[in-house]
Design goal:
14-stranded parallel sheet; 9 helices; alpha/beta; Leucine-rich repeat, LRR (right-handed beta-alpha superhelix); 20 strands
Length: 463
């Protein structure tokens, strides 16, 4: 972040000294405690207003505040509690919280509320906001813990949704789908093996910690298997080769690598293994994959074997810590959708434009300051999302990306708007919110004609 940007309103600091007194109050108790929400909101302007024309600084500050709070949550094992609450924080210019209002978003026992309020008091008295200001300000955050979802019970021909049904059925040969999601299972029920024609097995959101080779060996017609959000560690996943298995979901387990036995199922077309903390991601042998989900997988770089998956159509790399993309990603010539959002990318390689079938590119919440001139070589790109990046001008190449139908430039640092955008024949939606050109009233007139021309051409402009 440039020092000039920061000194306008904030000086970023990391402090561990905090106020002697911080009031942590449930929102429902404010009247009883003599606290006026309206008065607080008048006295403490939103932190966003202090960065109205500085989206880079605003985004970095918000991320630091969230990271600081999430670190405390992890340290005190609060993430597993079945709570959800919003926080309305009111800070002095020093970054010291004077009042924090807790809005309980789900029914919460009083004993749990008391415990959470004590922990929050501990947090706010030990930590300041990661910045100081020239005026009071307020901030908001939300924490969602391990809230059990209401169970989805599915019905239909050939479908069973409970272990009891599976145990009692007299026609196991007619059953093709078992939906045993959200049943608090700790192991694979023996009843599963009664069904020789089983094609789909959903064991998601249980507590299963071991996956025996028998599961795929004794269910030879199994095509789709979901173990989303269970408790599988590395040494617990065993698959025998299954010629019919096409889709496997191992998201949200305790894996640090892709199990070797998974790679033996070489007919897999869809593999979802995000929300694990992968130290390595060996994808060799999975040449038939067309859908790969590595969402929040702990990746600091793209796995070398990724670019060998020449049949990929959908690739999700959301919420990793990638700082650059390998140019060889352009080898994935069948790719239609690429999701790169919430990483640390400063640029996109020009060779991406070799992806002639790419239709959707999500790259929001990165640090991208421009686009390669070769991006006009995309032939199928319909949607480009560059919101929450570091663009100060509309990249010149955008004027030549003639297939674009939807362009999102929200929450950048746009100081100018190219009139050339009016020449995009297929553009239907343009997002410009939270940029200096629309937030600064003195500048709106300079670009009003361009916006009017776009709207006259039946482009929806959101500003």
């Amino acid at each position: 972040m440039k020092p000039l940007l920061v000194t306008l309103f904030f000086m970023l600091v990391w402090c561990s000294v905090a106020p002697a007194q911080t009031r942590i109050i449930s929102l429902s108790d404010t009247s009883q405690q003599g606290v006026s929400l309206a008065a607080l909101n008048r006295q403490y302007p939103p932190v966003e207003t202090l960065f109205a024309s500085q989206p880079k600084a605003r985004q970095e500050l918000r991320m630091r505040a969230i990271q600081q709070f999430n670190g405390f949550i992890r340290e005190h094992n609060l993430a597993q509690k079945r709570v959800a609450f919003g926080l309305r924080e009111y800070y002095e210019p020093t970054g010291e919280a004077t009042t924090v209002l807790v809005d309980w978003l789900v029914p919460t026992p009083d004993s749990t509320k008391t415990q959470i309020l004590e922990k929050l008091t501990q947090y706010y008295r030990a930590n300041r906001f990661p910045a100081t200001a020239t005026t009071r300000f307020r901030n908001q955050m939300t924490h969602v813990g391990n809230i059990p979802e209401k169970r989805t019970v599915r019905t239909g021909a050939g479908v069973l949704s409970s272990v009891e049904q599976a145990r009692n059925t007299t026609r196991p040969d007619t059953v093709t789908k078992l939906y045993f999601n959200q049943l608090e299972l700790r192991r694979i029920p023996e009843e599963v093996y009664r069904f020789p024609n089983l094609q789909e097995l959903d064991l998601s959101r249980n507590r299963i910690s071991h996956l025996p080779a028998r599961l795929t060996a004794d269910l030879p017609k199994l095509q789709r298997l979901s173990l989303l959000y269970n408790a599988l560690p590395d040494d617990s996943v065993f698959f025998s080769s299954n010629k019919h298995l096409l889709a496997l979901n191992l998201q949200g387990n305790r894996l640090t690598q892709i199990p070797a036995s998974v790679r033996q199922n070489r007919r897999l077309e869809s593999l979802w293994i995000g929300n694990n903390k992968l130290k390595t991601a060996n994808l060799r042998g999975l040449h038939r994959l067309n859908d790969l989900n590595l969402y929040n997988a702990g990746l600091a770089e793209c796995p070398p074997s990724l670019t060998r998956l020449r049949r990929l159509k959908v690739l999700d790399l959301y919420y990793n810590t990638l700082t650059e993309l390998p140019a060889r990603l352009s080898r994935l010539r069948r790719l239609e959708q690429l999701a790169l959002s919430h990483n640390r990318l400063r640029a996109l390689p020009d060779r991406l434009a070799r992806l002639k079938r790419l239709q959707v590119l999500y790259a929001h919440h990165n640090q991208i300051g421009g686009l390669p001139d070769r991006f006009d070589r995309f032939r199928s790109l319909r949607l480009l999302d560059l919101s929450y990046n570091y663009l100060s001008t509309t990249p010149p190449v955008l004027d030549r990306m003639l297939t674009l139908e939807e362009l999102d430039l929200n929450s950048n640092n746009l100081q100018t708007l190219s009139p050339g955008l009016t020449n995009l024949p297929n553009l239907k939606k343009l997002y410009l919110r939270s940029n200096p050109i629309v937030d600064d009233k003195s500048r709106v007139g300079l670009f009003a004609q361009t916006i009017q021309q776009l709207e006259a051409g039946k482009v929806e402009v959101f500003h």
